[in-house]
From TrEMBL:
PANTHER family: METALLOPEPTIDASE, PUTATIVE (AFU_ORTHOLOGUE AFUA_6G09600)-RELATED, PEPTIDASE M20 FAMILY MEMBER. Transmembrane segments: none annotated. This is N-acyl-L-amino acid amidohydrolase. Keywords: Hydrolase, Manganese, Metal-binding. The Mn(2+) ion enhances activity. It comes from Amycolatopsis vastitatis. It comes from the Bacteria.
Length: 433
């Protein structure tokens, strides 16, 4: 079964054949859909036999699902068509998915028994305009899968349908297709509130990583991503003439005091080993060169890899801002928005996932990976159950460039989709064994 729509606007020869720069071989696009070119399965022959058989017969469908989702991106909390596609594909193999009350997000169990392990994928796109030139580029202006969530969804769909065809499973595998990862505090909270973690003993997830070569999976024990909070500081002043700053409260000077003073102060109040960093992204105040403005705003992000530090940051920021602004006479309102917690993979879950990766792709497949200051709402799941998160290599290798995520030009090597399917299947089996 293929679901990629025909694209009559795609450039190619008179027969409609196009070349996918990430594959090389031809793929035929026609009114009936698409006949996908074969893609190499880097884990072929590693079993179990039913997984090898399923991938041999259905690998091109996994690619087609990803391309369809890629061409039809949906922004956070609007993933209605993607949700419908997921539900349809799960029901087609006899599974019984259920949709969250908001209409986006899917939960589905495979197998039976008391023990349950969860596998999670996110489904939303970014508010960007794609510039890859791929034949299955986004058809939606201002929305694009430049973070790889289309791949995550297709990988979990592949793992689900492969597991559904297994002769037997040693327990239950719960599929979590999550909306709204790209907005804070994240759709993971919606899934948790709806009961997606009820009865789950461990949870696992993958995120594409263009810095790792396809066929490798980056793992580490401990913090993989950081907590990410938003700070908005609004300042107020009576205003006045710049020739008489002593008769008013100099709002712009106060902004500068906070811009330089708060990061410096936090660096002396927080353990430097925590990876805590405050970076300002926007500052606005005034219009005229000779007028002290009456109001201004400062916005930034505050990140840390340490969970204990994260819980202490909000009151620390509030007291620090107050002390910095007290001498200036400027009024202020601090809006501190907690975002997502750090993703911290525990040792046991990481060991189980490592065993799954090695069974799926070989002993050399596990690669070291660095802790990132980026945020990921998978951390909310780990507030409730143990689990591990890993990075899936999607870089074709030299001489191909490394195209970073969240850029309009991000592309991935589609061989990684099959690596992801095998990794999730083996991780679930290893955990339930």
């Amino acid at each position: 079964m293929t679901v990629l729509d025909s694209r009559p606007d795609v450039p190619g020869d008179p027969q409609g054949r196009i070349i996918n720069p990430m594959e090389g071989p031809e793929a035929l696009i026609s009114e009936a859909g698409v006949s996908m070119a074969p893609v190499e399965d880097l884990g072929a022959g590693r079993g179990p036999f039913w997984l090898d058989d399923w991938l041999r017969a259905n690998a091109t469908d996994v690619l087609a699902w990803r391309r369809h989702i890629h061409a039809h991106p949906e922004l956070s909390r609007h993933e209605f068509a993607t949700t419908e596609l997921v539900v349809t594909l799960l029901r087609s193999v006899g599974l019984k998915p259920w949709v969250l009350p908001g209409g986006t997000g899917v939960v589905c169990d495979i197998g039976s028994g008391e023990r349950c392990v969860a596998l999670r994928a996110d489904m939303d796109a970014l508010p960007l305009t794609e510039a890859t030139g791929l034949p299955y580029s986004s058809t939606i202006e201002g929305a694009a899968h430049m973070c790889g969530h289309d791949a995550h969804t297709a990988i979990l769909l592949g793992a689900a349908r492969a597991l559904a065809g297994a002769p037997e499973l040693p327990g239950r595998v719960r599929l979590i297709f999550q909306p709204a990862e790209e907005v804070m505090p994240g759709g993971a909270l919606d899934m948790i509130a709806a009961g997606a973690l009820d009865g789950v003993e461990r949870i696992y997830g993958l995120h594409v990583d263009p810095r790792l070569e396809v066929g490798s999976v980056g793992m580490r024990v401990g913090a993989l991503t950081s907590a990410a909070d938003l700070i908005e500081l609004r300042l107020t002043s009576p205003g006045g003439h710049t020739s008489r700053p002593h008769l008013t409260a100099d709002l712009v000077h106060a902004l500068g005091t906070v811009i330089t003073g708060l990061p410096a102060l936090l660096s002396r109040r927080v353990d430097p080993r925590s990876g805590t960093v405050l970076v300002w992204g926007a500052v606005h105040a005034g219009q005229a060169a000779n007028a002290v403005p009456q109001d201004g705003v400062l916005r930034g992000t505050l990140r840390t890899a340490d969970h204990e530090v994260w819980t202490a940051l909000e009151p620390l920021v509030a007291s620090s801002v107050e002390s910095l602004l007290a001498p200036t006479g400027v009024g202020f309102h601090l809006d501190y928005r907690r975002g997502v917690p750090p993703v911290v993979s525990d040792q046991d879950s990481t060991a189980l996932m490592r065993a799954g990766v090695e069974a799926a792709l070989g002993e050399g497949a596990v690669a070291p990976t660095e802790q990132s200051s980026g945020g990921e709402d998978f951390g909310w799941y780990l507030e409730h159950v143990q689990g591990a998160f890993a990075r899936l290599g999607v870089w074709p290798g030299h001489p191909a460039p490394q195209s970073d995520i969240h850029r309009p030009t991000f592309v991935l090597d589609e061989r990684a989709l099959l690596c992801g399917v095998r990794t999730l299947v083996h991780t679930a089996l290893t955990t339930l064994a």
